[in-house]
Every structure is written in structure tokens, then in C-alpha cells.
Amino acid sequence: MKYEAMYIVRPTLEEAPRQALIQEMSDLFSQETEVNEWGMRDLAYEIEKHKRGYYVVMQSDASPAEVDEFERISRIREDIIRFMIVKIDE
Q: pLDDT value at position 20?
């Protein structure tokens, strides 16, 4: 099944650790993952006292186990301040 995942990275994270985080998150999916970095954007409302965040959107074919692992890691990682994953109907 095809999924789209979006997450927001803490704006204070340096470039090298941010790129490592993006690679780690895309490696959670076994299929080829299309990663689209939207960059730093204003948030609609403050999240953990941040007014901006670094947006990343990914699309990939994924199993339910991979989706569960993405959600688990996203909750654990302090550098991810929000995330969402949805199934895409094709």
C-alpha cells in the first residue's frame, strides 16, 4: 500500500544531524522512498515553544509493520515535533 508521511523537525537542529534524521526515517521503509524536503516554514501555532519547523514529506509503499515502526520512532525522537502518516488511495 502507498503511504504519505509528513513530519516536522525541531528548527534548532543543525544541518548534519537533520540530514541524518531524514535518512534514518526514510530507511524505515523497505521500498524506494520519495523524500521531499519543504524546508523551514512557519507553524500555524506554537509547538513546544517553536514558531517554525523544518517540514519533510515522504511517499513510499509500506507494510503495516513499517508504518507502525515509523509512528513508534516518530514518537520517541525528540527532534520530531509533529508527524502524520496517511494511506494514499490510487
A: 95
Cα 52 to Cα 2: distance, rounded to the nearest angstrom: 29
Which residue range forms the structural domain that includes residue 45? 2-87
CATH, residue 38: 3.30.70.60
Distance of CA 46 to the CA centre of its chain: 18
pTM of this structure: 0.91
Q: For residue 58, give the amino acid letter.
A: M
Q: Give 24: exposed, middle or buried? Use CB within 10 Å, 0-12, 13-18, 19+.
A: exposed
Distance CA 33, CA 35 (A): 6
Number of domains the chain contains: 1
Q: How far is CA 74 from the centre of its chain?
A: 7
